[in-house]
Specification:
There is one protein chain. The chain has 293 residues and is an all-alpha fold. The chain is 69% helix and 1% strand. It is built from 14 helices and two strands. The protein has a two-stranded antiparallel sheet. A hairpin with a 7-residue loop joins strand 1 and strand 2. Helix 2 runs antiparallel to helix 6, helix 6 runs parallel beside helix 8 and helix 7 runs antiparallel to helix 10. The two termini are 43 Å apart. The relative contact order is 0.09. Pfam families: DUF6576, Rhomboid. One of its GO terms (molecular function) is serine-type endopeptidase activity. This is Membrane associated serine protease, rhomboid family.
């Protein structure tokens, strides 16, 4: 029996795979690749322009720079020093990030990714006096945060590395972190402090997540601001009508109304992003509500 995708062209297969990526990973990979292409084109036009781009948006581990040019703590994550640097980071992001985003949802995933990248940059400021002041570029710190999140969510998941036998995720990630610690100060041009800072922030954010913190709340204001710019922001529906309808203070009826609204919101999210797009709290809530209904 012939596979339904056996006659599919490479471009069609690529588009299907690209569209099948979770929304946050798809956006991050697209931005990183687009910025790298811009870097390459600018470098071809003039090496001076290429260097100017890096110096304008790379992170410099000096507190005055971080204070007066804070955007560098974000923009440095989207610049890369070469094709292999980009490919290495994006492959790790795709390999481990997909399961993390599907488990936690795109908002929480984005908070961990960006938080790890920013945290790695801030830690680099503290160690720059010892390790030296150098421009930092690359998504490695952010990716390390996602790798730690993966190891915490799926510690025994086997990972294949080249010709090695399958190794559990927790040992792979721990090994990479240990390697960075051993190579600190090796002058090989790798910002290992940023890696370690990203890993540490990823761990702390995941601990907060597992203890019940709603990390997605940090991304919601930015999301609402973006929708306002697009003119598609919708105010949450008022519950005034429901409260007036049950002016007898029928607590049970009010609770049922609120639960139904919450259930509708979760079902709407499933229709948009699938069941895997739900956060762990939403999945638990859906289970509890479905038992009642």
């Amino acid at each position: 029996m012939q596979s339904m995708h056996s006659n599919e062209s490479f471009s069609s297969s690529f588009k299907r795979g690209y569209r099948g990526l979770p929304v946050a990973i798809r956006t991050l990979i697209t931005l990183n690749v687009a910025v790298f292409i811009f870097q390459v084109v600018l470098g071809i036009v003039s090496s001076t322009y290429g260097n100017a781009l890096v110096q304008a948006f790379a992170f410099y581990p000096e507190w005055q720079t971080a204070l007066f040019q804070p955007w560098r703590m974000v923009t440095y994550m989207f610049l890369h020093g070469g094709a292999f640097h980009l490919i290495f980071n994006m492959l790790w992001l795709w390999w481990m990030g997909r399961a993390v985003e599907e488990h936690l949802g795109p908002r929480t995933f984005t908070v961990i990714y960006m938080g790890a990248g920013i945290g790695g940059a801030l830690l680099d400021i503290l160690f720059a006096q010892i390790m030296g002041f150098n421009f930092v570029i690359g998504a490695s710190g952010a990716v390390y945060g996602i790798m730690v999140a993966f190891a915490m969510l799926f510690p025994t998941m086997p990972i294949m590395l080249l010709l090695l036998p399958p190794i559990q995720a927790r040992y792979v990630v721990a090994g990479l972190i240990a390697l960075d610690v051993l190579l600190l100060g090796s002058q090989d041009g790798t910002a290992r402090i940023v890696h370690l800072g990203g890993a540490g922030i990823g761990y702390l954010l995941m601990r907060a997540q597992t203890r019940g913190s709603n990390l997605s709340k940090w991304i919601l204001p930015l999301e609402q601001f973006w929708y306002r710019l697009k003119g598609s922001y919708q105010q949450p529906k008022s519950k005034t009508k429901n409260k007036n309808m049950y002016s007898v203070s029928d607590v049970e009826v009010v609770d049922e109304t609120e639960e139904q609204a919450e259930l509708d919101q979760i079902l709407e999210k499933i229709s948009e992003k699938g069941y895997d797009g739900l956060t762990q709290e939403e999945k638990q809530k859906l289970f509890e509500l479905s038992k009642k209904n």
